[in-house]
Amino acid sequence: MTTLFTVDDQAPSRSRIRICVECDLVSDVPPLAAGERSRCPRCGHRLATRMFTPIDHTLAYAIAAVIMLALSLSFSFISFSSTGVEQSMHLVDAITVTLEQRYGFLSFCFLVGVLALPFVYLMLVIYLHVSLALDHRPPGGVYIARSLSRMQPWVMADIFIVGVLVSLVKIMSLATISFGPAFWAFCIFSLLLLTTTQSVDRDWLFKRMCGPILTPEPEPGRGALTQGFTSCHACGQPGQVDDHGKGRCQRCGEALHARTKRSVQLTMALVVTSIILYIPSMALPVMVITQFGHPEPQTIIGGVLLLLAHGDYPVALVIFFASVMVPVAKVMALSWLCWKTRRPEPFRPGPRMKLYRLTEFIGRWSMIDVFVVTVLAAMVQLGNLMNIVPGHGVVAFGLVVVLTMIAAMCFDPRLLWDATDLQQTGQRHVAPRTARLSPAPPSSRQEVTR
Ligand SMILES: [Zn+2]
Ligand SMILES: [Zn+2]
């Protein structure tokens, strides 16, 4: 099938029903003009955004980002000299050196999060938008559009840049550093990548490829599941679910789940594993620094104390906060949220929602320390004069970060709002019911922000 549906970029979008994926409230989103966005009135989650010229901007950012990535792989990234010995590092050295040191986990994190996944993401965005600009429906386009939002949290070029800056502060007192052209190209690349991810108009993509879908819609102003509906996480289309809370999106074909299956059990299993791994991640050295033949293992806490001793207070605080405090805070927050889903209180889901969002947002920034070790191990290879190799602690720490990220993704925030919906409907438990087909009352329309 090669049919495309016409979407006028400048005309206001039509009014439509949306279900918030974070609190499950059904809202009637009013027509949006270009540049406007609509938020959920209950939890503030962004329901819909209308971009200016969705093809032109996104395509320009994505192509420029790919060019910058190619440039950053072609030139020297950082030059490093100490006592007359100079060494220059290319980005690919972060993969080859850590592989030689038998730390494949670090190579994998760097390759996937910093190079491969951003590149694949950009190429898929370019493929989709070029095809649509040429009025051609791309083969596999719907599947690709569904995959884009799943890839986004694992794209970590911005975190890598912060990791590079922190690692430079760590060795600034030991050596002279100079930035190569690849460093500046990579900074521009990470900015363009961020802009591309923000400018992809998911609604527009699905409308263009799948067109409007005329299906029964839930009543605005109430919880979706109490009416037998849920939102498609991939394309945002409301869809009906059966008595087991399952269904399939009529627009993009994604499997629908009214609530994430075994959300609390999965989250807690990952949280407990993270707690176990957190102990070796703090106790074992994350790297071994050899200076003039004397190896000196360094733990995360040891690194923070060393930075404090050198007077680098801001960087010491960043590392302490990102590597020590954030994993602990995240584990505590997720455990508390899981516990609260078992003891629902209908009047206080708002603050819990904010805690969940904060947990989800800050979690990936703990990867800073993993990238710091990767960069230092790739850069500082001057034999017995000065040499840095990773320690086992960094693998345990990296696993803590990845597992807590997956734990936050497994947690279904809609569970926090179920008690509120039950109180509104007077039901004893949340269960799908037959859908109603009633028009939206004017009072349920959402405010639009520019
Ligand atoms: Zn909401
Ligand atoms: Zn869908």
Tag the structure with descriptive keywords:
Butyryl-CoA Dehydrogenase, subunit A, domain 3, 16 strands, binds zinc ion, cell inner membrane, PqiA-like_proteobact, disordered C terminus, globular, transmembrane helix, 450 residues
What does this 3D model show about the protein?
By secondary structure, the protein is of the alpha+beta class. It folds into 2 domains: 54-211 and 251-257, Up-down Bundle (Butyryl-CoA Dehydrogenase, subunit A, domain 3); 261-425, Butyryl-CoA Dehydrogenase, subunit A, domain 3. The protein has helices at residues 54-74, 93-100, 104-133, 141-151, 157-171, 181-199, 202-210, 263-283, 300-309, 313-342, 349-363, 368-379, 392-410, 418-425, and strands at 16-19, 26-29, 37-39, 46-49, 78-82, 85-89, 176-179, 229-231, 238-240, 246-248, 255-257, 287-291, 294-298, 381-382, 386-390, 448-449. It has a 4-stranded antiparallel beta sheet. A hairpin with a 3-residue loop joins strand 14 (381-382) and strand 15 (386-390). Helix 2 crosses helix 12, helix 3 packs across helix 4 and helix 10 crosses helix 13 (392-410). It is globular, with a radius of gyration of 24 Å. It starts with 15 loop residues before the first strand and ends with a strand. Bound molecules: zinc ion (2 copies). The chain crosses the membrane at residues 59-83, 103-134, 269-293, 361-382, 388-411. It comes from Halotalea alkalilenta.
